[in-house]
Design brief:
CATH class of the largest domain: Alpha Beta
CATH topology of the largest domain: Heat Shock Protein 90
Number of strands: 38
Strand order of the largest sheet: 2-12-4-3-7-6-5
Strand content: 15-25%
Number of helices: 23
Distance between the termini: 83 Å
CATH superfamily of the largest domain: Histidine kinase-like ATPase, C-terminal domain
Radius of gyration: 32 Å
Shape: globular
Largest sheet: 7 strands, antiparallel
Structural class: alpha+beta
Length: 850
Amino acid sequence: MKYDRIIRTGAPAACDEEQIQFLNRIQSTGCLLEVSADWNVVRVSDNLSAILGIPADEALGMPLSQLLGSTATHDLRGALQLVGADGGVNRIFDVALEGLAMARADLSVSRSAESILVECEPSSAPGDDISVRTQTMLSQLRGITSLERLGSIMAGQIRSLCGYDRVMTYQFQDDDSGEVIAERKAAGMESFDGLRFPATDIPAQARALYLRNPVRVIADAAAPTAALVPQRNHLGQMLDLSMVSLRAVSPVHIEYLQNMGVQASMSISLIVDDRLWGLLACHHNSPRYLSPKTRVALEFYGRMASAIIETLVRRREALARQRARDIHMRMLSLVSVDANGADNMFALLGELRTNLRADGMATLMEGRLRSEGATPGPASMAALFKFLNSTAVSEVYASNCLAEACPGALSDGSSIAGVIAVPISRAPRDYVLFFRNELVREVTWAGKPEKFVSNDGSRYSPRKSFASWKELVRGQSAHWGAMEREKCEALRITLLEVMLRLTDSAEKMRKQNNEQQDTLIAELNHRVRNILNLIVGLVRQCGETATSTAVFTEEINSRIHALARAHDQLTSSGWKPRSLSNMVRVEAGAYLGAKASRVLIRGNDWAIEPDAFATLALVFHELITNAAKYGAFKDSRGRAELDIERLESGGLHLRWSEHGGSLVTAPVRRGFGSTIIERAIPHELSGMASTEYAPTGLVATFQIPARYIAPCADEVLQEISNADELAPQAATPVAGSSILLVEDNLLIALETESTLLDLGAESVEVVSTVSAALDLLRSFRPDFAVLDYNLGRETSVAIAERLSDIGVPFLFVTGYGDSSAIDARFRHLPIVSKPYDAKTLIRKLAGTNG
């Protein structure tokens, strides 16, 4: 074939548009069945006869139970039940097939639109348990603190485990190109270590599939593939094979592998922050098939390795954030409110310029331009500010190639190539700019990054050679990385506060209101992320120690509700110190119900500062739940005593002792609850904690530093959801009812709908907006209604008014800790705070009839 034009792979090309999920073919190592919702076969791969011994045309229209047998169909139905709503895959191994050429098979089941897809492969041969070996390898990764060393060890482990000729750790760059950062290979294999691969080697649609289907195996690039029969269904649609492991390979990618001298390949996705961070890419010079069991073990390895990479990335980011935070804090403390404040601030920005590795800096504040180091001239600067005014109002802008983004900014022939701009006001816009000079650098590519397109435009071909090829890059600065953008975003928020300190006029204050809102949103985002990280930690730790799904669900539910109760106490006080005694009574009442009076508190009460309150609440939650399960509250006689003593240092000495309960012995294995009791206060608060498992009962002592202690104001004990109020055998108010559920969060809506149906509701109508609810109420009168109070940019007050008019009882669900945010007309009605469980919902629903 002749080629008459060349496409640089850095630009969009036909490979970016190829629909690789609609190839209508599969690899011939197994067969594929498409099954309708009523479990009849509607499409098959044409190698069905070779795999199962039944011609494809005979299988079409046949019930799956008749084709594979009742046992296999039963198992597939159960496996499909566990396939997630996000389009996952479930696998069952060594399944007996009745009366077929393949007696036993490994089966995979997934969904594609309204169809069910079943992959059938030969049952895995007996041998060593690869999952055990995988877990052993993962344990070797946990102490590694360097991403470079981690990449090398992962490549070696996968090569040892799977036997491929070459294994590479491949990391994606900011421009979606990839670089081999580590490699393990057989003797005589060409090395790709340190080489760069252009973005179109793995185009966008392929990267998207790597996120959904994290292990991709090509057993033999030269082997014939099996076509689907029929190619299109009765609606003329081809089958989406995104989640099919046996999906055939794009002809272009086969040519790519052949040009590389590779006959088999495998890749494991490395996913960090829900983005494709990189791949563990494997090549082999001869055919190599991996069984479904092996692929499942490799998928687990990839997920765990991704978590380790994420931890290392987070650690690097945390150190960088701390350095930038120190600079920002000094900036806030040193800026004065006199007329020279802006000049003082400019001097302090020089330190951040060094931290960002910038060659120059400029500020435009209240019409005055200041510059330092390498910057464009006045005319170029004016063109740059005009360009920046056309970008987003409240976002940091970054470019490492101003020649493309804003050619006018380089009209004076300066050496500047990159800029990162921090907007600090809206109208007129003020900026802080950091500049980088042109970085002339060599990039070593795996082959010259070009693709050849046929003279008729029908197809393109990947490059023939992967020998290292060096390119001299000009007109660009070093890339502004994600961390540098984040530092500048933090600077933007800091400077908003500084500008407020330097402004006296009311007009200027009015113009800054939007920036204040940005600051509040950023702080809220910071706190939400902290809460989410804490919950992720709880889930992981509970998962490691739980002995069953039921235990895991109970433990994580109780701990999250303990944190929610602590948070509600803080928000109801305006984030002020709260009573220690009241906190203990709240936890005891929530978990023990009538037994809460058996917790005796002695000594003067003291308040706990907000930044220590949740930690102490979680510790006492664990003490109380452990006592209920194993100690003082396990029977009717036991009690617990909490002695509070003020130390000369100003801190508190707390002694928790249990008496009269079950005989106590030290645990053989430390669970997550014991870890919280023994380590949370030392780790989070720099205090002290010790436990003694005396035969008469557990004794735990703690010391809380003085900085977390404050005088205690009188408080009213928070209302507690008493689990004992609802007898398990009592009929619920939900039974047989029709319920209206208004909730704008889909996951919460699905969970609440499931809960209400499990509790006996006859029907649940779910809507997410006020207008949808009011339209529904024109033709539907529910027995009860559950209303999320805050629906994005609107509230459910209008729905509440309509329900009141037609006499339908209802309750509000809210993320606020108290009722102060609820319309005053409805504050007397039942209100449920998020998160909530089924028992709380039942109790509150019962209250709607009271």
